[in-house]
Design a protein that fits this description.
371 residues
Length: 371
């Protein structure tokens, strides 16, 4: 028998601490839980020490919005600073991956290490039975354990960013928005007179916000300029450092009009780490960008154990990508090989491949290479 556990039900009162970020999603999560009769409290996390223009990381504005919502809901708002944990467990890895020429996904680690570890541990120490967030995902439970499932709003589904969570973390988590569409969430916020009901969704680096990426990264890592070439070795100019580019990238290459060349966009199709070369081509679907197989490591399975292989399933290699039919072919010492039915564009080392059986998120791993 499978039962939903993402919101509980009226009469099953729990003390639940909601991670109030100041955004509309977490605000409505708190509203729904209180309407269901739970003992709700809020917690605002600060995880980055602001050091420049406030537009980049508006922690003060977010705190004000979180406090306003807490006041309207008549719930206490705790405040905590996890900046040290964020630096040690998320940001250092973020820098290491860029220095290695890969493109990391800090949101995945941020969820595992901060939102569902540091925050969860702190909430439990305050006497909570569970935490809740504004993530768009669902949870169900049966004899096999807790299952992480895709949400009702496929455009907002965030299971891709949650695949590293384990049974203990998920059993203490609640996702009240799992059955709602984003427009319904905004309508609920407006009906509750929340001042942030029109607030735009947060973007940029997890807890750091939107930045001028090259300038921000250059504070921590030395740039290594090098040659920008076509796949045939034709010199086109210089790149600013391989860490500033990702596979499939179109913008920011700085390639102007060239004599006797067609006026079509240029794309990053490969990185030559050994020779510090950036390879670009005028082809959105260049053969170097299209790969059918990948290898991944750092595997994590939500059930706590790997599935029986080979396994026919679906996967996505980036957030919001439609699920792609694939086969997990082999598994050895924390690594796997995956073959897709159709070639995939811009399989990017450092990003995650996440596996699904329909709406059930099985887990995933970090992409090492493709071929």
């Amino acid at each position: 028998m499978t039962r939903a556990i993402e919101t509980g039900s009226a009469g099953s009162e729990e003390k639940i601490i909601v991670g109030l970020s100041g955004g509309v999603d977490s605000s409505v999560a708190a509203l729904l839980l209180k309407q269901q009769g739970h003992r709700v409290e809020g917690l605002f996390m600060k995880n980055w020490e602001e050091d420049d223009h406030p537009d980049h990381c508006s922690a003060a504005e977010d705190l004000a919005d979180a406090q306003a919502v807490a006041n309207l809901l008549q719930i206490p708002l705790h405040k905590v600073n996890f900046s040290g944990e964020y630096w040690d467990h998320v940001f250092r890895h973020f820098l290491d991956e860029y220095q290695a020429g890969r493109t990391p996904n800090p949101d995945v680690l941020c969820n595992r290490e901060i939102k569902f570890r540091a925050f969860l541990d702190h909430a439990l120490s305050l006497g909570a039975q569970a935490i809740a967030t504004g993530h768009y995902a669902r949870l169900t439970q049966n004899a096999d354990g807790v299952h992480l499932r895709r949400c009702a709003d496929e455009n907002k589904d965030q299971t891709y960013f949650l695949y590293m969570l384990d049974q203990q973390q998920l059993s203490h988590s609640r996702f009240p928005l799992g059955g709602l569409l984003k427009q319904e969430v905004r309508r609920l916020a407006e009906s509750a007179d929340f001042p942030n009901y029109k607030k735009k969704d947060s973007t940029g680096i997890c807890f750091i916000g939107e930045r001028h990426f090259r300038e921000f990264l250059s504070r921590y890592l030395p740039a290594r300029p090098g040659r920008m070439e076509t796949p045939d070795g034709e010199y086109l100019g210089d790149h600013q450092g391989l860490m500033y580019y990702t596979l499939g990238q179109r913008k920011g290459l700085g390639i102007g009009g060239r004599a006797n060349a067609v006026e079509t966009p240029w794309f990053v199709v490969a990185k030559d780490l050994d020779r510090n070369r950036l390879i670009v081509a005028q082809d959105h679907d260049h053969p170097l960008l299209l790969r059918q197989k990948l290898e991944a490591s750092q595997l994590h399975w939500i059930a706590g154990r790997p599935p029986l292989l080979p396994l026919q399933c679906q996967a996505r290699i980036r957030h919001r990508q439609p699920l792609q039919p694939c086969q997990i072919m082999s598994l050895d010492q924390g690594r796997c090989q995956v073959r897709f039915e159709q070639k995939q564009r811009a399989i990017t080392p450092g990003q995650s491949v996440v596996f699904y059986l329909q709406d059930d998120c099985l887990g995933g791993g970090v992409i090492d290479n493709s071929y």
